[in-house]
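To assess whether ligand presence alters the predicted conformation, the chain was also submitted together with nicotinamide-adenine-dinucleotide. Input:
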Amino acid sequence: SRHFAAEERQRSPQLDAQPTSAPGSGYNVAVLGSGGGIGQPLSLLLKLCPRVRDLRLYDVANTAGVAADLSHIATAARVSAHTGGDELPDALYGADLVVIPAGVPRKPGMTRDDLFNINAGIVRTLCEGVARYCPHAWVAIISNPVNSTVPIAAEVFKRAGTFNPAKLFGVTMLDVVRANTFVGEALGVDPATVNVPVIGGHAGVTILPVLSAGTPKLSVPEGQARALMARIQDAGTEVVKAKAGAGSATLSMAYAASRFVEACLRAMAGEVGVVECAFVASSLVTDLPFFASQLRLGPGGIAEFLPLPRLNAMEQGNFESMKAELRSSIQKGVDFMNT
Ligand code: NAD
Ligand code: LMR
């Protein structure tokens, strides 16, 4: 793999003139892995988003057809197709936001960590491209295992001298979407009116829905709260089992990712009060180097880390007992780049 030195970047007049879109004019969004199970419906949802000006579809295969298809939809976003490494620069140059669903999904019996060997290298290569061709872009990583791929991305950017921790996000929005849906069902209310913060990471027990801090208030016996928490933590596996070898969540993930990307673009455009959960480099809220928590987004990325919600005794216990796993998944990503 290639590593791009900061000096190399600084020498490049093309990169010094790196454009970022002016607020209000629409944004350039690149989807890396756009031909896949998540990539296609995510690209569809982004084609419908009025804040997207240029939608760049990148994959190693399957881009031309998806782009031709989407380009017939009567919305303003322009769609372009970019296939294979030689066309990555064009997909990235001038991108304001890059969303990465590239990589292999789970099959029944696998953990997200079982995807590490393949997806770590994919994320590294794509992020090397980001560092080189759109170093100022916001980057939203979907590829699993998120607890490790986000640290890999951070290491790539550090080596390139482009790391801006305010603009690198692991997408954990699907955990929030699931928590809102299941709590909405439990409360008998429209899930669109529910907001449950989910903190920690994005795998098994590292997914920590803070049910006690959700709105509207959920008052259920501890056993029911534990069951809800377990369902949210295992929801990815529920889909993997139901798809029986055909992959993992794609449609709900595309919905969650498009919600997250739209929140980023609203913040970029100067909308105030945009608060979302994401897995980010963070030393302010816990002693872990990366952590998912509620973030206030602004035009430059993360504007504020909201304090962790108050955890009840059960949530605090789960938090303490998952820290070692999360720390070691983070370290695995860092080590991948340093060995
Ligand atoms: P998929 O196999 O359907 O699609 C993956 C796409 O990535 C394919 O089109 C493939 O060609 C492409 N790809 C592979 N290598 C590439 C490379 N080097 N450059 C560009 N594109 C490349 O898989 P999927 O169901 O879309 O899932 C993608 C990833 O998202 C998986 O790792 C999965 O575990 C993860 N995921 C994460 C979440 C989350 O909440 N963060 C949710 C669901 C899935
Ligand atoms: C999910 O939560 O659905 C994703 O992380 C995919 C998976 O492997 O479960």
